[in-house]
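A brief tutorial aside. Many learners find it easier to grasp structure tokens once they have seen a single protein encoded end to end. The record that follows does exactly this for Protein SprT-like. Read the sequence first, then the structure, and try to relate runs of similar tokens to stretches of the chain.
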Amino acid sequence: MNLTNYVKQVSLEDFGWEFRHQAYWNKRLRTTGGRFFPKDGHLDFNPKIYETFGLEIFRKIVRHELAHYHLYYQGKGYRHGDRDFKELLKKVDGLRYAPALSNSQSFLVYECLNCGSLIRRRRIVNLQKYRCGRCMGKLRLSEKA
């Protein structure tokens, strides 16, 4: 799929206005679905959103970024809090927020062998060196998550 041509098609079909710049895939995006750059007018999109949620959700994200784009070039309020932006986004059925991608936060769970308390950590704990903070009991990696 040629992304720029797809964005041009969505712009004409859903807004009735022409998209005159470029659209790019940006693999470095983590939590956002896309970005609009007022300085040069291009749009970035997160390919993981398209791969995970499919074309229907991705089209709504394209509408969101195009709402920023078109309002900016019309001299209207193009930021998230502006009334013009909220109204146009509602009119074209765009997403206000990108859906959360799973596995954004994963934890290891350790269990105290003495008191049974559970301890969540993002990093691996050296079980020879560290003990439970409540009772000084030994820890083990737990299957509970």
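Self-check: The chain has two domains: 3-92, 108-142. If you spotted this yourself, you are ready for the next section.
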